[in-house]
Amino acid sequence: MEGSSIKALASLLLGLVVGFSLASKCIMPRSREMHKTVHRTSGGHCVFDKEERTQKDISGGLLLQPQDKELLTAVNNVPRTSNFIFIGVMTAQKYLKNRATAAHRTWAQTVPGRVQFFSSEGSDTSLPLPVVPLKNVDDSYPPQKKSFMMLKYMHDHYLDQYEWFMRVDDDIYIQTERLESFLRSLNSSRAVLLGQTGTGAQNELGTLALEPGENFCMGGPGVVMSREVLRQMAPHIGQCLREMHTHHEDVELGRCVRRFAGVQCVWSYEMQQLFYQNYEPGNKGFIQDLSNSKLYNAITLHPNKSPPHQYRLHSYMLGRKISELHHRTIRLHREILRMSNLTNAEPCREDLQPGATACFKDLRPRQRQDVREWDFFTGAHLYPSADWYQPRRALCGPLKAALDDIILQVMETLNANGKARDYVVDFKRILYGYHRVEAPHGAEYILDLLLLYRRLKGASVPVHVRRHAYLLQAFSRTLFREESNIKFTQLEDKTDQVSGPITYVHKSLGRLSPFRLSDSSSDFRHGLATVNILVPLSGRYEVFIRFMDNFEKVCLASKQPVKLLVLLFSAENDVESERGGAECFRYTELVSEYHRKYPWADIAVQPVAGPFSRGRALHVGSSHFSNNSLLFFCDVDLLFRADFLKRCRHNAILGEQAYFPVIFSQFDPKVMDRGRARDNQYVFTTKTGLWRHHGFGIVCVYKVDLVRAGGFDISIQGWGLEDVDLFNKLIRTGTRVFRSADPGIVHMHHPVVCDPQLDAERYKMCLGSRASSYADTLHLAQLWLEKNQQDFHWTNITQTHVD
Q1: Which of 49, 194, 479, 563 has CA atoms 20 to 30 A from the CA of 372?
Q2: With contact defined as beta carbons under 8 Å apart, do 225 and 257 qualify?
Q3: Signal sequence span per UniProt (predicted)?
């Protein structure tokens, strides 16, 4: 006994020695090699000083969060399985080139398995799509036979190659990563049928031959079945086709599975969220509201029948993925920075700013002017604290997009553990909120949210609650991108041609002063569209001198490809009169001086008879240009820079879009500046002027779009409305209108004269425009108080003595 015990102990010791020896030679070097790989990938040379840290330490949460485990998979070169799921897409011959192609180019590219499109017999297989034409199957509706024969094809060819099988339509969108993650949490060896559970529409109750407690998976959002379900059901497909009770393909599929596989669609509230069917009012066959949090959390989205909307949805999902990866990068930077602080190691420079944790405590203003005021907003309107001219305005697009993104993140945070707690939280609306941007920290939000708490199990009444959210959206580090070798391509048939020379004859002097707008061959910058500037003018010679001085500095001195046409009304409304001709001569003589100084310049003066009418002047002026000419309707009171001309070219698109810049209009310098001249006219503050959001007179548009819209209404005389009329015409004819506050153009202040003979509507508009041109509301109030303070004080004293 003792000998055998000693021998057993010796064998045990020998085995331990051999085991440790093998481990030291085979396992430990591999562990160190794996550690070095992660070390380099994470930028670890700035974080870790010891190479002895093991893979277990890293994957245990010190560096990577649970959601970052796929990073370790990529580092360790572990390939994803490609035989996980087979997706059969039901389509038809007429949809192969549009819907099926859109699905193949978007979500089908990232499926962890195979995707094939099943169509009728004789379908075109020459397209770059994996098309399977099913024998003895046509494209008739309802597609019951097509659906069952597609499943039989899956069973006969791929049953043992894939764990899961899915039946979808060609107007579906699938988030393949979420689909794989969800299915890997389930046991594919069991009989499982997944989808959005249905029992029929309200008007179909009792007509689908369903027993109490029976259901089916709705076909639109997709149906997923395990290999075991397909194995048990497929041999009986012929019998299921012969014994159908309805015309609904998804109802009969559910009945066949329930009859021969013994399972039915899973009863679960979560399935309605994962397999999303768009029931929104006004559904036009595609998903419109991309900011809906239900879309982002879903696995399948249905319907999306239009290929452009399919591509649009795919682009949005890719953008969301970029945001996720960027956020994950920031979390890793923060973890690296925290590890550096714990190990007393010097952090990398690139980890300092993105790794800094956002905190409200960092926002400590030291002076009153450092405090940024809050802007108040409701669900539809914004009340900016610093804008006295427009105290209420509609929520702008960027702020709405930011709020949608913030709400999405807030709801994801609230529902992160909702399944474990047996409830979900639905967002209803924002009751009100506050917003400000505090550079360089970020954007701050205070939101009053109306939420709906809903239990997942059991009968309960949803509860509406209000919650406050205090949020800080921190700024990350600034990214600089340098673009070089920008090429401007010259578009064909966009050259500017004129119908002929524009000539002004001055009879009193008995001589001819010709000015000709030359053709495009005189352009100085090939590849840039020529901007044809049209300026209506009546009197105001000193203002015209200022305009020409600015035109020389911006356009002539730098040889900008522009042409100037001045549409001149005489003071006497008659160019044949001696006084009218003499006044017109002043303008033509001034233009002649510029023409002598710049012989290549395209400057012309066109006389216009009759009383001043801006619409008629621009109508006459635009008639001298071809349909492919870019027109800039300008005023003599404007000053502009070269950057505005660049935006004029880029934002006006031939046959598609017109550019209506929002002009900054200066206040009366006599009121705001006490008559002092300003050194810089391009200062945009609430004390220098206001943005004319409701002004539409300045526009860059191609002649062809102007003609298609019907041009100006030349019957409008006097002040206003001709610009609003053109704006509405362009919209009605399908021309896209682009508006933006443009810092490259300024409207200089001038007195506004309102003719009492105008109709009531235009006279009221004119008075409002004149009143808003003096100063901002706060400054006018201060002036009134200063002027009336002495009288007001004396009135109070007198009243006191009388009492």
Answers
A1: 479
A2: yes
A3: 1-23
If asked whether residues 213 and 248 sit together in one domain, one would say yes
Tally the C-alpha atoms within 13 A of residue 574's C-alpha that lie toward its C-beta.
Answer: 5
Contact (CB, 8 A) for 360 and 472: yes
Q: Give the containing element (helix H, strand E) for 742.
A: strand 736-747
Distances (CA, A) of 68 to 28, 99, 185, 419, 536: 25, 34, 17, 21, 64
Residue 325 lies in a domain: no
Residue 218 is encoded by which pair of tokens? 């709705």
* Residue closest to 380 by CA, chosen among 432, 450, 427: 432
Alpha-carbon distance of 256 to 254, in angstroms, equals 5
In a domain, 470, yes or no: yes
Range of the domain at 227: 85-305
Which pLDDT belongs to residue 315?
Answer: 94
Distance CA 413, CA 420 (A): 14
Measured distance CA(430)–CA(369) in Å, rounded: 30
- Residue 117 sits in the same domain as residue 241: yes
- CATH number of domain containing 102: 3.90.550.50
| Residue showing tokens 């509609």 | 394
Domain limit, last residue, from 305, 323, 338: 305
Tokens of 74: 């990529």
- The answer to whether residues 293 and 146 belong to one domain is yes
Domains in the chain, number: 4
- Token pair for 469: 């959210």
Check if the beta carbon of residue 146 is closer than 8 Å to that of residue 120.
Answer: yes
Task: Give the H/E segment covering residue 6.
Answer: helix 2-22
Residues 462 and 576 in one domain: no
Helices (H), 506-641: 541-551, 578-597, 614-622
Is pLDDT larger for residue 6 or for residue 584?
584
Structure tokens at 540: 């105001």
CA nearest neighbour of 244 among 154, 140, 144, 120:
144
488 belongs to a structural domain? no
452 closest CA partner among 486, 485, 428: 428
- Contact yes or no for 227/171 (Cβ under 8 A): no
**220 within 8 A of 252, measured Cβ to Cβ:** no
- Both 523 and 604 in one domain: the answer is yes
pLDDT at 46 exceeding the cut of 50: no
Residues 792 and 747 both lie in one domain: no
pLDDT the model gives residue 514: 38
Same domain, 133 and 201: yes
Bridge partners, residue 794, by sequence? none
Domain boundary among 305, 338, 362: 305
Burial 31-69 (b: 16+ CB within 10 A, else e): eeebbeebbeebebebbbeeeebebeebbeeebbeeeee
Write the pLDDT tens digit of every residue in 520-537: 333 444 468 899 999 988
**Of residues 558, 702, 529, the one with CA closest to residue 622:** 702
Both 454 and 516 in one domain: the answer is no
